[in-house]
Structure formats: C-alpha cells, structure tokens
Write the structure tokens for this entry.
Amino acid sequence: MALSLLAAATGWAASPEDAADPAKVDADYALQGEYAGELASEAWGVQIIALGSGKFDTVGYAGGLPGAGWDGNRASLVRGTGELKDGVFTLSAADGRFAGTVKDGLISVTEAGSAEIGKLKRIVRKSPTEGAEPPAGAVVLFDGKNVDAWRDGARMTEEGLLNGGATSRQEFQNFRLHVEFRTPYKPAARGQDRGNSGVYSQGRYEVQVLDSFGLKGENNEAGGIYSVAAPSLNMCLPPLQWQTYDLDFTAATFDAAGQKTQDATLTVRYNGVVVQEKTKLPHATTAAPVAEGPAPGPLYLQEHGNPVRFRNVWIIPQ
C-alpha cells in the first residue's frame, strides 16, 4: 500500500473518507497483519493489530492462524504487545515467553531470551469466495454499475463501491446470499467504533460487520449474529482487505393466527469458513429496521457512522 504524507505523524487519525482509502494509511499499516511459519519446528501464526501512535496488540496461535491450523482453544493463545520506536519494531508476549523483532515482513522470534527459534512471514490471505460469480437464477443486487436494485437513498462511491445504508427493493423469504465488504482502517478507534456495520437478512437479523481483527469473536463482533450468537471462530482479516459473507437463510414460519411456530435459521460462512451453522434466531436482532413477522423482507446493509464498503452482492431465492 502507498503511504500518505501522514505516515510520519504520531497519533495519526484519518478523516472518515481517508479511513476507507487503502492509499491513505500510516506507517503502522504495513506492519500490522498476519504472519505465519514455524517456530522450533512447530507451525505458528501471529496477528498484529495496529492501535495508533506506534502501539500494537499481538495474538499468537499455536498450530497456525484461525482457519489455517489453530484448534480454536482460546486458552492456548499467546497475547502480547508491540511498539514501533525509533524505526525499530519489537514484540513481547504478556507472559514473557516470547519476544521478537519485525523487519522486511519477517518476525524473528526468540523464546525466553534465548537464541532465535524461527521466523514468521507476513502473508495476505484472501477469502476463497472473493469474486464469486452469481450463478444462474441469482438476483444481482450490486455489481458496481448502479444502485437500481436499492431503494432511494442508496449511494455508490466514485470507485464503484456501495456505501452502507442500503435497502434492497426486492424482498425475500428463504435464500442464499453472497456479499463482499471492506472495513476502514481506524487504528485509534476501539470497540464498536472500529468499522461498524451489519448485514440484515429480511431487515430483521443482523450478522455483524466490524473490524474485529485479533479480537475474541463475540456476538457483537464480525461473524456474530448480533445479540444472539458468537461465531465459532473469529475469521476476521485486517481492515482494508476484502472479506466475504456467504449466508444460507431459512425464514421463520407462522400459523394462520400470526403466531411463530418455528424460528428462522442462519448459516454463515465467513471468508469461506462456517462460523454459524443453522443457528436459530429467536427474535429480530437489536436495531433491526423490520419487525419479525411472516412477510418477506429486504436485504439491509447498515449505515452506522463508519465508511464500510460493499461490492459483488447477489442473492439466490430458495
């Protein structure tokens, strides 16, 4: 990524539009990300999360990165911190077990002050479903050409991407959905201010969109069904990388009196990995624009004060 003139500044903070632009990042951006390789002949992965002003959080995964070897055991995680100071980027585990230095896309790792035990290389993973073509029978909701499939108020960027705050004109019951999204780079932000949006099936049930890179994976983080269920694995990639949701949605059923007889269910593949499998949705999620009921509903891509971008949105009614 190209670096802007802001790269040398301390406490870098982007405007909302700059935060969504991969060409306008600070010096920390090139250091954060995913690293993988072997330490003492064992596979490891590390995620480095930029926090602003040369500060970082780190998470080490024995066996490999999430979705690429790690067994999902949170107790095995090795958390730590990093700091970029005077041109030197150092890492240290909170428990003192590991330390490292980062240079030219490599982490050189030492264990408990001993000799180097290996190097981890910075990698950029892509979702296996990124760029998936809509199959026959799919309803193409957004392909970068226009916002005709969306209700008034939907907006497209000059680069041909879809902003949040878009509601589909067509309404759906059961379906398969493919959507690609990109969260902004906001290193100084925390929690729900770090790239917040959501994908609402029928305008009722939200799969959270958030820069959750390196976080625990809660129901209000990426891959979570907001206020209902946490993802089984946090598959979030770093901000400003394209990510994918592939959803299988089965609508709730109601009797003639309008009483619900069966909850809706949702399967979520996040960057190609199943993180929700036929999860029951006992109620509409928080802030849903459409109340739960028997009628079909639209796809809603939430606007929540963050410049999240969407592309390649298509749906297959079932």
